[in-house]
Amino acid sequence: MRQTCINMVYELAKQDPRVVFVGSDLGVGTLKQFKAEMPDRYYMEGVSEQNIVGMAAGLALEGKVVYFNTIATFITRRCFEQVVIDLCLHNVPVRLIGSGGGMVYAPLGPTHLAIEDIAIFRTLPNMTIVAPADANEMRRFMSVSVNHPGPIYIRLGKGGDPIVTPDDQQFAIGKTYQLREGNEALIISTGICAKAALDAAASLTGTGVLHVPTIKPLDTEAILAAASKACVVVTVEEHTLPGGFGSAIAELVLEAGLKPRFKRIGIPDVFPDQYGSQASLMERYDITADNLTKTIQQLWAAS
Amino acid sequence: MNPSPTEIKLDQRSRDLRKLIVQAIAGGRRGHIGSAFSLVEMLRVLYDDVLRYDAKNPSWPQRDRCILSKGHGCLALYALLVDKGFFPASELEKFCKADGILGGHPEAHKVPGVEASTGSLGHGLAIGVGMALNARIEKSDYRVFVIVSDGESQEGSTWEAALCAAKHKLAHLTVLVDYNKQQSYGTIAEVLNLEPFADKWRSFGFAVTEANGHNVEELRAALKKTPLDPQKPTAIICHTVKGKGISFCEGNLSWHHKTKVTDEEVKALFAELEAR
To answer: Which of residues 2-31 of A touch B (CB under 8 A)?
Structure first.
């Protein structure tokens, strides 16, 4: 997914002279071809993320569309104020490509786990948050990303994530995708959790899957339409529960007066205490198809 | 020997610009007063003699970009923008009021002529670097001027941006440092010393010069010489006095950020600027 995203920046830059790429201190050879062909729009600025966000704002205020890639936590945590003031207050088209959304960097420990990024950024006016489910969806999203006004945070998965979205899907920022029909229970997922949601739904009857790649702004109409049909609604995210994706859905559903049996699946309010792999941490915090299945069955039995 | 920043007498234009600041203070009854008075001559010389702009078309693509990174000094910027006709003087009375466009920190989407919304320190130089890079990409000859405070030079992000400006040899970028040597709590030397200050900018890859920040001739001469080096961004360390021009504000930290300014104080401010 990362490779697709980064390669797409190159493709976009070839077509659109406004597109600029900035990295912090990425792997040697990153976008070598971009650098060779369009050196004036390629920047690698070192371990100075706060400067990069400000610099990207300056370029964007002048009409450029800037794609900035670094590790997700360095964007969301270290550069929070630059993102708020330089990007959101000025409402400029800078795309923040956050590598390692969720628990991708499990072996590297808590400094590198972007597990509260959604909660942080969904509080910011003018911010758009997109978490594609797979590389194909990433490609479709990236192709419509250039002309979107205002800043976008792009949450990257690990890479090699299973393809779960249909090829004929037309991506629109701010829209949801019903990946599986089913009117009795509904799983609402974001990012790569669409896969676990689909696996769980396949083992159940009458369970739909609504994939929400745009976490902000939410496609309220589609989400409420889908949730209003279901007695059981479960959200799933690779993110901490306080303030995250499930919280956003809960706010929406409750305020609309819907009363499904409701549960959020995600990371509890802790710093993950193990290394291992993304998959092993997902198991540890029960962000799995099995747990989704069990949870829906329990809620169903209690309703 | 030239008079020091403390000794130098302000001419009529400098006093008139300060009166515009006091008009805003009379309206809003508050403001970073000392921080604005220290930078009037820097802005005056920029807007009178250096910058290319069109007050009737503030987003003219060929204009020079001037970013007040020390956003709390905005009263001085508002005075210059009024003086140059970017917006009417009647806005000054609405300083910090609900129906005004002029806040305690400047916002680009509200105030004609303000390039970037600033206020939290350490943001403006990076934005200026981005604008200067854009000039290079577009092969445009506009220049970028960023005014930073001394206190702001305690922010790490200021130095990240300085590294970046030097790396890209942004000779069309000039930083003016308002070195009034005081911050909110006390002197810079006591709170977090910056000396050797000029050497720091030099070692970060800037061509550096120093000037008396209240001496219009000296500022003009320094700015006319920029870029000091065709391969480097320029930094001009402007030695200034916080509260310059008002005897009871000069060096007086209680005027750094003043609230609840009284009628008597407004009168006293005007009186000082009228007296010769």
So the answer is: 20
